[in-house]
Design a protein that fits this description.
Distance between the termini: 42 Å
Largest sheet: none
Number of helices: 11
Strand content: under 5%
Oligomer: single chain
CATH class of the largest domain: Mainly Alpha
CATH topology of the largest domain: Tetracycline Repressor, domain 2
């Protein structure tokens, strides 16, 4: 059973930012920052946009344009050579900025790949807070996760998922950072559950529930990466993510008591 929040799940569902690309001809931007830049590029030049009359709006647009160029440059270089083999100076050079500008936008290099505060965090916690009366945390959060992750099978998500899979799996640094982000997300969910249930310090139930939900998330993310890298995608992958997600959701809701029972008595 899906909650309203699950139906509004983000299109990527991942804690990672989408890896953008800069094609030789105009195309639909792959990131929010790139989309802002593209929209600005299509706007006619007005006196308010001229350097002589800088407005806060104009400064913000230039900020977003620069940020989009940096992200695009980083994505290209990471795809070509891997995260660990690319320096911030090289990213700055390709983006047409100085190294300090890159650090002004992204204080740490890993920020070029992962959002510091992924949209998934707010959406997941909202799914729990907005669940209808009588619905459990595992049902609300699990349904949100399944709905969000199933969208990784969409054709328009394939390139981004594949690019991220290659970059993350090719870097120990990024793998560690991804686990840290998932850990922080798990802590946030556990704290919300503890607050809602009035759990006492030391009670393990909120943490078990949160780890189970984020375990489902991580499992579906890795499944999507595996399938996309092997060439699968579209309705077939979406159906598999939904099927596997529903199986995981059933375990979350009804427990593991009947799972993997031994077929013979130990003697």
């Amino acid at each position: 059973m899906s909650t309203p929040a699950a139906e509004e799940a983000p299109s990527t569902g991942a804690v990672i930012r989408t890896m953008p690309s800069r094609p030789p001809v105009p195309a639909r931007p792959a990131t929010k920052t790139a989309q802002v830049a593209a929209e600005v590029a299509d706007e006619p030049v007005t006196p308010a946009d001229r350097p002589a009359k800088r407005t806060p709006g104009a400064r913000e647009r230039r900020y977003q344009e620069t940020r989009a160029r940096i992200v695009d440059a980083a994505a290209e270089l990471f795809a070509e050579r891997g995260f660990d083999s690319v320096s911030v100076m090289e990213i700055a050079k390709r983006a047409g900025v100085v190294e300090k500008t890159v650090f002004n936008h992204f204080p740490v290099k890993e920020g070029l790949v992962f959002d510091a505060d992924p949209p998934m965090r707010t959406a997941l916690l909202d799914a729990v807070r907005r669940r209808p009366a009588g619905e459990s945390v595992s049902a609300a959060a699990g349904s949100f996760v399944v709905a969000a992750m199933s969208r990784l099978g969409a054709p328009e998500a394939a390139d981004g998922v594949a690019a991220m899979a290659k970059v993350v799996r090719g870097s120990r640094t990024l793998q560690i950072r991804e686990r840290e982000i998932l850990g922080a997300l798990t802590d946030a969910l556990a704290e919300l559950i503890a607050e809602e249930t009035g759990a006492r310090p030391g009670d393990i139930e909120p943490w078990l529930a949160a780890h189970a939900v984020l375990g489902l998330y991580a499992s579906l993310l890795e499944l999507a990466r595996d399938r996309v890298l092997s060439g699968s995608g579209g309705p077939e992958l979406t159906a598999e993510l939904l099927r596997q997600g529903q199986r995981g959701l059933s375990l979350l809701q009804f427990g593991l008591a009947g799972y993997a029972k031994s077929s013979s008595a130990s003697g």
